[in-house]
């Protein structure tokens, strides 16, 4: 269980249609790294840099009907999906000479695409789980039933898995975490504005319609939906919201199994553990003790039938993507259309490519890397990482607000950051996972069980710091504070982020800012709480920590003033880590560019200086359109700021931007009291 705060990557992605010229990778499309046609020259860069760099692109790239947002990340994700589709369609042929890896990814994809077989089976694959729920006669049976649902991938009540010990980062411990909600964050259940109230009403109707599809009479389905909403609201009431979960101290409570049992006497934890069969352990991290107490009270206060209804709902909800078309469309109607604003369901092939990547990512990734990521790409990226590390070292050394004692600790941490680039050194072994041709739901469940067991089997063992948390085709990146490493999958090391044919200004503005972003995460409000070994430990002097918190507060206030849609503001505290990384990442990427350019005469290209091209390249990786629903969802529940402010919110804090474009001190893009930490 990797908590989401450990994965402060760049953007959550969706797929759609790509553009630009053909490449050698079949029908996959390449993307321009520096796009002159994207620029809107009618907009002064000093007035609105996002609109200047992206205005024409925004006009010419409307959101496809099967998407809720559309940007440069999406374009590359689409290109990668097209490559993966070609790989999977070739391997889905029932050829007895296929390798075991090709058989698994090919038959998984084939089965997912076989809608006729899925329709013929109907809801029969859910029958074993529903029968166990229905057969319960007493609340004492809940732990064992819950264990079976968790193994199958259902998000019921809580999650249980493994994680590195916050204060002993070399050891994996068991961990229990809050869960069980159908909406993105606990605040959705309590916000009183009209749109939040309407969203809850639509969720209740969605639950009722889903129960009807499963065979319940309308009156019972409506009553059951109200029951589910009641249970989830009670769970939400004792849950931490996403901003609170960003504080490691609030989600680390190591205790014995006996102490866990005292928190929730109505739930027999030993029965749960006996059923899931983890390795022996005596202590675990209970992320949110108040949630466990609240769950205990909920089980004690409600009758068994109420719990059964909730379990049925979460079982069907989790299985919806592999159920017949009516369930898929109903699931999309709420989670795609209502929550995100997409107009159409994604084509079946896109969904099946994504599911295959989710469940067999390192099997599929082997073929992707062979086709799209040559060996020299890894060396080129590592060279840039080292250049950015050197710039960050210089930045830390020259900081005026940090004392030498803390600088020494910071530089030690920086020097010990490990770099993982492209793909794992050792591929994951899926030999224990059975993939059966024609059994889409069964394959999905067995993949969930495989991953559940894989995570449990880590308990009590040393942390494997070579393991990856993203698949190779993923268009994203992350820094892991408990392992003190940065991770750049092959999927993002492509144009428009990195282009072998582009000049340094373009590459440092794009992938350089990405690399700098991830390195800075080691020193944001979360990463700064972990030492060079990855342990939750204060390495700051009181004086420096006070100054750091003050500088971070500038970002909280600044970004909290940005309005995304209607009256919805960015949550400055929720997005603090990403905003710190965006600002620090661009600054050190600029430092690295100047070092790379050296003293050689600077040449303009297409009428732009190298520094102007650097800033435009940075802005253009964030060109994107989004639905109002998606903008609202991101502002309320995502730790990343809206793309417009990932550009305008950053450049206004960077004096070098103002100099590059000749902006006057009173220009809209230039802030008099600029925020800066790194």
Describe the structure in your own words.
The structure is a single chain. The longest helix is centred in the middle third of the chain and has 25 residues, at 348-372. The strands form 4 sheets. Strands 2-3-5-4 form a 4-stranded mixed beta sheet. It has a 3-stranded mixed beta sheet with strand order 6-8-7, covered by helices on one side. The chain is of the alpha+beta class. It starts with 48 loop residues before the first helix and ends in a 17-residue tail after the last helix. The protein is globular and about 80 Å long. A hairpin with a 2-residue loop joins β2 (158-165) and β3 (168-178). The protein folds into 2 domains: 49-87 and 379-424 and 468-678, Collagenase (Catalytic Domain), CATH 3.40.390.10; 142-322, Neutral endopeptidase, domain 2 (Orthogonal Bundle). It has helices at residues 49-60, 72-91, 100-113, 115-121, 127-135, 142-152, 194-213, 218-237, 242-245, 257-263, 269-276, 289-301, 304-319, 325-340, 348-372, 375-398, 404-415, 440-456, 504-521, 542-560, 576-597, 610-620, 628-637, 643-651, 655-661; strands at 69-71, 158-165, 168-178, 254-256, 283-286, 418-422, 478-480, 485-489, 563-565, 568-569, 624-626. The protein is built from 25 helices and 11 strands.
